[in-house]
Amino acid sequence: MADIRAGILGTGHSYPEGILTNADLEKMVETSDDWITSRTGIKQRRKAAPGEYTSLFAVKAARQAIERAGLEPADIDLILCATVTPDQILPSTGCIIQAELGANKAAAMDLVAACSGFLYGLTVADTMIQTGKSKHALVIGAEILTQYVDYTDRQTCILFGDGAGAAVLGAVENSHGILASRIRSDGRYEEQLFSPGGGTRRPASAETLAAGDHFFKMKGNELFKVAVRSMAEISREVLEEAGLTADDVKLFIPHQANQRITDAVASKLNVDTERVYSNIAMHGNTSSASIPIGLDECVEAGKIQKDDIVLLASFGGGVTWGAVLIRW
Ligand code: UT7
User: Fold this and answer.
1) What mean pLDDT value characterizes the chain?
2) Do domains 4-175 and 179-327 have the same CATH topology?
3) CATH 3.40.50.1970 fits 179-327, yes or no
4) According to CATH, what is the number of the domain 4-175?
5) Measured between alpha carbons, how far apart are the two ends of the chain, in Å?
6) Which end of the chain offers a freer environment for a tag, N or C, measured as fewer CB atoms within 10 Å?
7) What is the mean pLDDT of residues 241-259?
C-alpha cells in the first residue's frame, strides 16, 4: 500500500455573502464584541440567507477544486461530503452535489463526523486511492450551521458560521502527499455537542420544535479542554508515524473552533504563531468546512509551496478528532 500515496491536486472554497458581526449579536443576546473577541477571537461569521442551502456552496467549492486539479467532473470516481447540516435526510448531499456537478462516474455519500468530517474524508479517500479503488476522489466539508443555531443561547450563537471547502485527491509521487493520518472517536461524550431532536430517537414534532431540540447544544467548557488535549496528542502521533517533528511543520492548519484552543494546541506542539493559520476572526467555527476553507485560503495566498509539510488537526462533536500530515 505504501507504494502509492494520495495527495491533494486542487482545492476550492465558497461561502455566503451574508455577514453576522459581533455588533449584530450584541443586539440579539447579552454579549459584547469585547467578550466574543477575547474569549474566541471571532469578529464575524458568514450566514446563509433564507433559500441558501449546503450543496450550493459545496458545488461552488468542488468546481473550483476540480478545475484547479486540471480535471473534469467525469474524472471524479468518489465524492465524500462531510456535513452535519445536509440539504435533506434523503438523498445524501453527496448525491445532490454529484448530480449538480455532472460527475456521472462517481460514487457519492455523506460522512457525519462534525468538525473532524473533512479529515475523516481525507483519510477514507487516501485509503481508497492507495488500494486502487479510487483514482480521483473529491472530499468536501460543507455546512449551513446557522440554521441549527439557537439565537437566544449566547454560548453557541456567537461561534458558528457557514461555508464550504473542497479538495480533489489523486495519486502523487511517493515521497509527497499524505504521509500519515489518524482518526478517532468517543461516543460516550455525545452530549458535549449535540442536536437531540429530529431523528428516530426523538422524532420531529410540535413539542420538539417548541423545546428547540433541533438546535445545537454545547458544554463549551468541557469540550475546550478535551479539544486541546486530543488535537495535540493526535498531531504528535502522525508526526511520529512519519518520522518528523513539529520543527518540520511549515504550516499548521487546525480546525477553527476558538482562537484560544488553536493557541493552546500550537503551544503544546511547540509550533510558533507564524506557522499557524487562523481565519476564525472572519469565519467563526464552520465545523467540517473550516479546515478545507483554511487550506484553500493558504493555497491562494501562496503560503503553501511544493515540498512543504502541512499539518491538519481537528476536534468536534461525537466526539471525534483526527490529524493528517501532508508533504505538498
Ligand atoms: O468545534 C467543535 C469544538 N468546539 C469547541 O471546542 C468549543 C469549545 N468551547 C469554547 O470555545 C468556549 O468554551 C466558549 C467560547 C463556548 C465559552 O468560553 P469560556 O471561556 O469557556 O466561557 P465559560 O463557558 O466558562 O463562561 C464564562 C462566563 C460565564 O458567566 P459566569 O458564570 O462566569 O458569570 C458565561 O455565562 O461567560 C459567560 N458567557 C458569556 N458572556 C458574554 C458565556 N457566553 C457568553 C457570551 N457573552 N457570548
Assistant:
1) 97
2) yes
3) no
4) 3.40.47.10
5) 19
6) N
7) 98
Q: Is the dihedral of CA 231, 232, 233, 235 positive or negative?
A: positive
CA-nearest residue for atom 47, ligand 1, is: 31
Mean pLDDT of 161-183: 96
162's enclosing H/E stretch is strand 162-172
> What ligand 1 atom has the least distance to the C-alpha of 31?
47
> Within its chain, how far is the Cα of 62 from the centroid?
14
Which H or E run includes 19? strand 19-21
Ligand 1 centre from 155 Cα, in Å? Answer: 5
Distance 231 CA to ligand 1 centre (A): 20
Atom of ligand 1 nearest to the CA of 257: 1
Per-residue pLDDT tens digits for 92-112: 999 999 999 999 999 999 999
Length of the chain: 328
The pLDDT > 90 percentage for the chain reads 98
The residue ranges of every structural domain in the chain are 4-175, 179-327
